Amino acid sequence: MIEFKKYTLKNGLRVLLHQDKSSPLAVVNVLYDVGSRDEDPNRTGFAHLFEHLMFGGSLHIDDFDTPIQNAGGDNNAFTNSDVTNFYNTVPKANIETALWLESDRMLQLNFNQHMLDVQKKVVVEEFKESINVPYGDMWHELSKLCYKKHPYQWPTIGKDFGHIEQAALSDVEHFFNKHYHPNNAILCISGNIEYEETFEKVQKWFGPIPPGIVPARNLPQEVKQDKKRQLIKQSMVPRENLNIAYHMVDRAHPDYYVFDLISDLLSLGRSSRLYKNLVKTSDVFNSLGAYISGSMDPGLFIIDAKISLSAHYGEAIEKIDGELNKIRTELVSDYELVKIKNKIISVLEFSEVSILNKAINLSHFELLGNADLINEQSKFYEAVTAEDIKRVAENYLVESNSNVLIYLPNAN
């Protein structure tokens, strides 16, 4: 059980505090409710660009990294389709350094043309490096194939690096003012803290920041897919590669846990079905895995197959569908279901050891609607039945709901 206290400042900032006396450290985590799904289709990659810009200096601070390092800590960030998350790990005595830094860049970034030009160049180079490797454009191609209306149709790094190259100072200032304010954020502090003392420091640094206007999120939703989609792409790749994506439910849906169990049933460990039945016993696959996107809005259940040089993608598709058909038509045994549930619950419990994981996860579940959900995850997995797995597979893991991306090596 992860215990925590929740507060809301007058400016709308949600604050979560979790005490863990076993650690000499504390984590200050700031989650902003903005990701690539919130971008203009003609201005993509901005959420990822801001992950970089937020380290480029703020109203009163020219350099973000040096004060954290001088305080004996470190920091980092990540962006995905749904959120932008910044985290700092510091000795408990220096927690105020992290609060000072995070509050100043929430208040106002130091926008100037030089900083923007530097970070634009970094992001564009990152974009180019990511796609100029074998299968590097997979998420670009698969996202476009799967989504026709929803902004998940482009990856977090953006649809086109030209959108970043053409970004003006006024564009990024507008994006910041729209999304990066206290009532569109969640602050979580986890570690060796005292509740009252820490909350007083939070009020000191974040209380004076004025609230913004939380943008309404009215995203276009996908129409139910009723026909298989397939894209074959010839490219400079060493061997055939296959990705099959099926539309699934959103993160808050009860069936999310069913999809997660199915993905682990298929590919978690050397006793998983895909490994035992296809990788180990045939010469068709070099590797084979299944995973879910876990996105806030309806996401994807994805199978990734690296095909042996001697095999063909058609044979690979047939064998994969054979395994999925077993799940669609046969009930998973009690033994197998209990085994995979125990593995998942063990992973959950192990993740609760880390104060960083707890800070990020508390913030994530608060964004979902209730931070208390962090203590309910095992219960939700335990509640999944063999009938649930069969039902979900019958309804979702079918050809008419599939999006197949095939890479073929260029002909010599």
Please name the defining characteristics of this protein.
412 residues, 19% strand, globular, single chain, alpha+beta
Structure summary:
The protein is an alpha+beta fold and 412 residues long. 41% of the residues lie in helices and 19% in strands. Strands 1-2-6-3-5-4 form a 6-stranded mixed β-sheet, sandwiched between helices. The protein has a 5-stranded mixed β-sheet with strand order 7-11-8-10-9, with helices on both faces.
List the SSEs and their pairings.
Layout: E1 5-8, E2 14-19, E3 25-32, H1 46-53, H2 65-70, E4 74-79, E5 84-91, H3 95-107, H4 113-131, H5 138-146, H6 161-165, H7 169-179, E6 185-191, H8 195-206, E7 229-235, E8 241-247, H9 256-267, H10 273-279, E9 285-292, E10 300-307, H11 313-329, H12 334-351, H13 355-368, H14 377-382, H15 386-396, E11 402-409
Parallel strand pairs: 2-6, 7-11
Antiparallel strand pairs: 1-2, 3-5, 3-6, 4-5, 8-10, 8-11, 9-10
Helix pairs in contact: 1-4, 3-8, 9-15, 11-15
Explain what this protein looks like in three dimensions.
This protein is an alpha+beta fold and 412 residues long. It is 41% helix and 19% strand. It contains 15 helices and eleven strands. A six-stranded mixed sheet has the order 1-2-6-3-5-4, sandwiched between helices. Helix 3 (95-107) packs parallel to helix 8. The longest helix is centred in the first third of the chain and has 19 residues, at 113-131. It is globular and about 60 Å long. The N and C termini lie far apart (59 Å). The relative contact order is 0.16.
